[in-house]
Amino acid sequence: MAEARGEPPEPIANGAQENPEADATTTQGAQPNEEKQDEEMEPLKLLCGVCETETPKYKCPRCYLPYCSVACNKVHREVHAGEPVTAPPPPKPAPTPEAADDSAMRGRKFRHPWQTLQHSEELQWLFRKYPRLPSQLLEIHAATQPPPVQKPKIPASLLKDLPPQDLSNGWDKDKGIERGKEALRKARKADGEDGEALREYSELVLHFMEEARERKGP
Fold first, then answer.
1. Strand partners of residue 59
2. Where is the composition biased (Pro residues) (predicted)?
3. Measured between alpha carbons, how far is 74 from 82 in angstroms, rounded to an integer?
4. DSSP the chain
5. Which residues on adjacent β-strands are paired with residue 58?
6. How many CA atoms, within 13 angstroms, populate the side-chain half-sphere of residue 137?
């Protein structure tokens, strides 16, 4: 009996007994720090340098400030209104005939704003964003074309002595342009992605027209 009373208590095995309340408090206290670290690691979103709300799509050709729309571009252009036009670089040595021909081909290819738009990365980006945009543009273009010619129902043998018939159905170039404009207006007012795609495309066209006017100068 004396030996039983004199036995020392069994030692705790290397932290076998733990404080569950302390562990829970430690775990809960670590969660806000982890969430804070995740928030700090989120990448910053690039915004328009004018309105500071929308994602930019273009850059100013002078100072490379990103902006999102033609409206913001007009506001930003006032910043450069009083600045002198940069002097052109000094002339380069005359290129070889082969290089001159190649340069002339590139100049003709990108001289017109519509040709610049056709080969622009911005337009390709719109086509990727709105896969239906190319077919929408083809539909608008089709509205500018003359209607199919209807063959006369009268046999050709009986038409010899008759005056030539007008097979244009009242179509001319001006009417084709008006029909194309009307088709574009309807497409821009459409709901959903179809309307949004045409509105962004129209905005991109205006952007390239503005750039062409700036390059041309007064």
1. 66
2. 86-96
3. 14
4. -HHHHHPPPPPP-TT-S--HHHHHHHHHHHHHHHHHHHHHHSPPPP--TTTSSSPP-EE-TTT--EESSHHHHHHHHGGGTTSPPPPPPPPPPPPPHHHHHHHHHHHHHHSSHHHHHHT-HHHHHHHHH-TTHHHHHHHHHHHTSPPPPPPPSS-GGGSTTSPPP--STT--HHHHHHHHHHHHHHHHT-SHHHHHHHHHHHHHHHHHHHHHHHHH--
5. 67
6. 16
Q: CA torsion 120→72→70→216, rounded to 10°?
A: -80
Query: Taking the domains of the chain in order of start, what are their residue ranges?
Result: 45-78, 112-147+170-218
Residue range 34-56: average pLDDT? 73
Q: Which of 180, 184, 206, 208 is nearest to 115 (CA)?
A: 208
Distance CA 138, CA 134 (A): 6
Distance separating alpha carbons of residues 112 and 119, to the nearest angstrom = 11
With a cut of 90, say whether residue 35 has pLDDT above it: no
C-alpha distance across the termini of the chain, in Å: 115
Tokens 């952007």 correspond to what residue? Answer: 207
Q: What is the pLDDT of residue 100?
A: 47
Q: Are 88 and 94 in contact (CB under 8 A)?
A: no
Q: Could you give phi then psi for residue 58, rounded to 5 degrees?
A: -130, 175
Q: How confident is the model at residue 133 (pLDDT cuts 50, 70, 90)?
A: very high
Among the listed residues 198, 50, 78, the one whose alpha carbon sits nearest the alpha carbon of residue 126: 198
